[in-house]
Amino acid sequence: MTLKGKTILIIEDDQLMREGLCDNLEFEGYHVVTAVDGEDGLEQAATLSPDLILLDVMLPGVDGIDVCRQLRSHGKTIPIIMLSARSSEIDKVLGLEIGADDYLAKPFGVKELLARIKALFRRFEPKPLEETFCFGPIEVDFSRHVVKKNSRIVELTAKEFDLLTCFVLNAGFALSRETLLEEVWGMNSATTTRTVDNHVLKLRKKLEETPETPRYFVTIYGMGYKFIAISQDSPAL
């Protein structure tokens, strides 16, 4: 795995801490961008799409907890390491429960931080798409663009297949309609989030046993959708 060139966003209001982190990470070959408060950090995350975020909890204005919560509510799956002077177990649990991937209490050693960053990059390294993928009675052959349900071919349009592929690649993650629209239709698409809803509805009708109570393509109210890859032998959720 090549780490050189990966972009890390540091959201930290303490100038000495921010500059120290920046110097050490750039020395390791990372591209570093910084933000001094929560609002600036959210804007940078939206426009730059960094590969990882170092997020201070105690920020002026929008604090780190709210920044993390907002990023996750908009479907951003960027790895986040929270940094905090508060080291109690309840603070760590809160940070992880709202979507942070790791939590480091200040003060911390640079070597430990670098090790955790590398560990997260290994965990989030894109995995090659398997030639075939099965869930329930559904078999997806990505190399041939063929989908079968109970061994019978199901006809999907190109965009329906692309949407299904996006769901499979992000199995278990809640994805916002905006994220799905960008990933499947592209940033410059003139379509709206309603298009996403319509295509999810079509996938449900074609692949779910009971589209009205979906097992695989579930709605995350107020946000978007999540694909749950249930095996044929697994009980319904």
Let me know the number of strands: 12
User: What's the rounded overall pLDDT mean?
Assistant: 87
What is the CA-based Rg, rounded? 20 Å
SS content category: alpha/beta
Detail the poorly predicted runs.
233-237
Could you tell me how far the N terminus lies from the C terminus, measured between alpha carbons in angstroms? 36 Å
Helix content percent band: 25-40%
Largest sheet: 5 strands, parallel
The general outline is elongated
Strands side by side in the biggest sheet: 2-1-3-4-5
SSE pattern:
EHEHEHEHEHEEEEHEHHEE
Q: How many H/I helices?
A: 8
How much of the polypeptide forms β-strand, as a percent range? 15-25%
3D structure, described in words:
The chain starts with 6 loop residues before the first strand and ends in a 10-residue tail after the last strand. The longest helix has 15 residues, at 110-124. Residues 233-237 have low confidence and may be disordered. Strand 3 (52-56), helix 3 (64-73) and strand 4 (80-84) form a beta-alpha-beta unit. It is elongated, with a radius of gyration of 20 Å. It is an alpha/beta fold. It has a five-stranded parallel sheet, sandwiched between helices. Strands 6-7-8-9 form a four-stranded antiparallel sheet, with no helix packed on it. The chain is built from eight helices and twelve strands. 40% of the residues lie in helices and 21% in strands.
